[in-house]
Write a structure and sequence with these properties.
The structure is a homotetramer. By secondary structure, chain A is mostly helical. In chain A, 74% of the residues lie in helices and 0% in strands.
C-alpha cells in the first residue's frame, strides 16, 4: 500500500470508529412496562442527535475520501493537517452526547448547541485549510488533475464553509433548528460536490 | 484502492466495531463466592442477546460483502443509502443492551423486543432498497453480471424480508421466541444466498 | 480485494478492536496524594489481566493470520466458523474485566478464573475445528500447500489445545497461576508454529 | 496482502481505535444554564489532555508507518515486539484519563503525571528496541535500503528517546509543563524524521 493509501486507511478507521461510538452515549433506560415506553420516548433527543451526527460524520468521510482521491502522494504537512482534522472528527461523540443530554432544557440546550456547532466550525476550518494547502501549487495532485481549476473552487468552497459559523448563532435561537440545518448541510454535501477536471475516480472491476 | 474498495473498507470497519462493542454492554457483576456465581447466571439474557446480535451483524456483513462483490463502481446515491444502512448496523448494540436488560421481566421484554425487531426491520428495508437500486438498471454491476437475472431475484428477496416485520408481532407474544427466530434467520441467510449468474467472486491466490 | 482478503480485513478489525477495548475496563481511581498512589497499586490485578489478555489476543491474531495465509479462497462454512471464532475473541474484554475485578478475593477469583479459562477453551475448540475443516480435503488451500502434511499436524495441534481445559482446573487451585500459564502459552505460540510445506508467506517489496 | 501489509493494517487499527477511544473519557457534565458553562470550563484539563494524547498517538502512528515503510518482510520477533508496542499504544487512553482527572489538584497531578510520562517512556523504549532490531543486520529491509546508514542513526535515535525519561522528572515539578513538553515532542517528531538513504516511500498514482 502506498503512503496515500495508508493515510486513507488510518483516516477511514477513525471515521468508522467515531460514527460507531456514537451509540455508546445512548443509555439503556430502567423502569418497567409503561414507564419503559415513556423513558424510551423521553430519550428522543438522543436518537435525533445520533442520526444527525452519524450523517454528518458519514458525509465528512465521503468528502475526505473524494479529496484524497485527487492525490498521488502525501507530505508531512498534509499528514499533520489531516491528524488535526481527525482529532476533531474523533471528538464528535462528545458534543453529540452533550447536546442530547441538554436538548430538552432551553437554557442548557443553547450552551450545548454552541459547543456542538463550534466543533463543526473547527472541522470546516481544518477542511478548508487542507483544501487551500493542496490547491496552492498542486504538488500532491495526481498528474491528470487540473490544478488551476481546483484552485478556482476555493471561493465557492469557503462560502459553503461560512454556513457553519452561522449555525453557532442559530444555536442561540433554536438548538433544534441548528441540528436540522446540520442534517440538511450533510445531505447537501452528500449530493453536491465540486468536480475537478481530471479528478474522476477510476472505477476498476477489481 | 478503488472507490468500491474504500466504501467496503469503511463498511467493514463499522460492522467490525459494532460487533465488538456488543461486549461493552455486559457488565462485570459485583458480589463474592456463591453470590458471584448467581450474579453471573442472572446475566444469562445478556449472553444470549450477545450471541444472537453478533451472529446477526456477522451475517449482515457477509451479505453486504456479497452484494458489493457484484459491483464495479459506486455512485453518490449508493454511498448515501449505504451510509443509512450502516447507521442502523452501528445502532445495534443499543437495542441489544435494551433487550438484555429487560428480557427477564415479561412486560418490559415486549417493549424491548419490539424495539429490537424494529431496528432489524429498518435494516431489512434499507438492504432491500439498496438491492432494488442496484438491480434497477445494473449501471454499477461488474460487466459479467446478468442484470436481468439479478432483477428477477427481487421478489424472492422481498418475501424473505417480510419475516422481519413478523418478528415485531412475535415479540409481543414471546420475546425469547423472537430472539430465537432472529438467530435462525441469521443462520439461514449465512448459508442460503441468491446466486446471480456471473456474480461468482474471483478467488485469486493473492 | 478478493474474498479471503476481505474476511481477513474484517477479522483484523475485530482482533484490533477487542485488544484496544481492554483498556476501557481499567478505571481511573479517585482519591488524592498518597491515597491515589495506593489506589493505583490496588489496581495491579487489572494491569496484569490487561497485559495477559492483550498478549493472548495478539497471538491469536498472529496465528489466525498464519492460517488464513495458507488459503486461496474461503467458503460459506469457513466464513461461518470464523464468525463464531470472532464472537469469542470479541468477548474477551468481559472475562478479563471479570477476572481483574475479583482476582484479589480468593473465593471469587476461582469463579472468575474458571470463566476466563472457559472462554479460552471455547476459542481453542473453534480454532481446532477450523483447522480440522481446512485440512480435511484442502479444498481452500493455495495450490502450493501440501494438504497431506497439513493434515498430519492435526494430532500435534489437538494435543496443544488440551492445555486450555487444564487451565480451567488450575484456576480452581490458583487463579494467578492460571493467568501466568495463559501468558506463557501466548509467548509459546508466538514463537512456535507449525510449518506447513509450501505455506511460506510471500514477501514482496511492496 | 503480504505479511508486512497485514501487520501494518492491524497496527493501524490499534492506533486508530486508541486515538478515537480518548473521547470516551470526557464525560458529559450535568447542571443547567450558567452551571453547565462552568462545568464545561472546569473540564478544561480533559480537553488539553485529549489534544496532547491525540497528537502523541497520531505522531507515533506516522513514525510507525515510516519505519514499516522500510521493510520488505517481518519475522516472528518483530511481530512480537510490535505487539508489545501496540500494548502500550492501546493503553494510552487510561493515563490520559488519569491525568485529566487529577490535573487540577497539585499533589495528585504529580502522581498522575509520572504515570503518564512512564507510559510514554515504555513506548519510547519499545520503539528504540524495534529500531535496534531492524537495523542490526537489516535482514528485513527492502533491498534499496542502506543498512549501514540506517544503523548509524541509532545514536541520534537514542538521544532523542532520552527526552522521555526527563519528562517523568518534569512531572514532579509541573505536570502542566510535562504535558506541554509531550505536545512539543509530538510536533517535533512529526516534522523531523531520520531519512534513510533508499528509504523514500514510493508514491504511486494508485
Amino acid at each position: 500500500m502506498n503512503e496515500t493509501g495508508r493515510v486513507e486507511a488510518f483516516s477511514d478507521g477513525v471515521f468508522a470508529i467515531a460514527t460507531t461510538l456514537l451509540i455508546l452515549d445512548i443509555h439503556v433506560p430502567a423502569g418497567s412496562g409503561h414507564e419503559l415506553t415513556a423513558a424510551l420516548a423521553h430519550q428522543s433527543p438522543s436518537y435525533v442527535a445520533y442520526v444527525v451526527s452519524f450523517l454528518v460524520i458519514g458525509v465528512m468521510w465521503v468528502n475526505h475520501h473524494a479529496l484524497f482521491g485527487l492525490l498521488a502522494k502525501v507530505d508531512r504537512t498534509l499528514v499533520f493537517l489531516n491528524l488535526l482534522l481527525l482529532m476533531v472528527v474523533a471528538a464528535l461523540p462528545w458534543p453529540t452526547a452533550l447536546l442530547a443530554a441538554h436538548l430538552q432544557n432551553t437554557g442548557d440546550a443553547k450552551v450545548a448547541g454552541v459547543v456542538y456547532s463550534g466543533v463543526m466550525v473547527a472541522h470546516a476550518l481544518l477542511y478548508c485549510t487542507i483544501w487551500w494547502y493542496v490547491t496552492r501549487d498542486g504538488h500532491l495532485f495526481r498528474p491528470t488533475i487540473d490544478t488551476r481549476a481546483a484552485r478556482a473552487t476555493r471561493t465557492r468552497f469557503n462560502v459553503g464553509a461560512l454556513a457553519y459559523p452561522a449555525t453557532m448563532a442559530l444555536a442561540l435561537l433554536s438548538p433544534w433548528a441548528m441540528l436540522a440545518v446540520h442534517a440538511l448541510l450533510a445531505v447537501y454535501y452528500a449530493f453536491n460536490q465540486l468536480t475537478i477536471p481530471g479528478g474522476e475516480p477510476t472505477a476498476t472491476p477489481d
